[in-house]
Structure formats: C-alpha cells, structure tokens
Amino acid sequence: MNTNNQEIEVKFLISDLPALLEKLENLGAVELRPRVLEVNLRFDTHDRKLSDRAQVLRLRQDDQAILTFKSPG
After folding, report:
1. Torsions phi, psi of 52, nearest 5?
2. Quick check: 44 pLDDT over 90?
3. Structural domain that includes position 66
4. Alpha-carbon span 16 to 2, nearest angstrom
5. For residue 29, is it within any domain?
6. Contacts of 2 (CB under 8 A, 6+ apart)
7. Which spans in the chain are helix H?
8. Closest alpha carbon to 9 in 50, 58, 64, 63
9. Buried residues in 43-69 as b, exposed as e (16+ CB within 10 A)
10. Contact indicator for 57, 42 with CB cutoff of 8 Å
C-alpha cells in the first residue's frame, strides 16, 4: 500500500510463461507457493446498490476463502 492508503493492483498478460519463469529464477527468485486456481465471486443487492456506490463485496477462493469489502475512502 502506498502512503495515501490506496491499493494499487497491476496485472500483466504473460505470453511466454516458461521464459518469464526462467528469467525470474536467473535473478534468484524462488517459488513460495505453487499456482492454484482462484475463483472470485462478486455480490450485490438486486437493485445494484453496491455497484452504484462503487463498492464491491467479493468472496475469493483459492487454497482458502477470503471475504473482502472494498469501498471508496
């Protein structure tokens, strides 16, 4: 998190995963956790009150389940 408490998430499209993994290993990176399938479920009210307020209620499941709520500050 940066100093103004905003979360910044960056995603990249990787066209050659084996080449990227090799580069990371050459830089000394080590795998901390194996890849797992991540499922994200987003919830809202029938009249979309959360979306209208730029709020998100999400259940993320990978090797555990985490319920998060995001809202503008």
Report:
1. -60, -25
2. yes
3. 36-73
4. 30
5. no
6. 8
7. 17-26, 49-52
8. 58
9. eeeeeeebeeeeeeeeeeeeeeeeeee
10. yes
- Tokens 């499209």 -> residue: 13
One-letter amino acid of 24: L
Q: How many domains does the chain have?
A: 1
Question: What pLDDT was estimated at residue 33?
Answer: 86
pTM of the shown model: 0.58
Q: What is the pLDDT of residues 48-62, one digit of tens each?
A: 999 999 999 999 999
56 touches 41 (CB < 8 A): no
- The pLDDT of residue 1 is 46
How remote is the C-alpha of 39 from its chain's centroid? Answer: 10
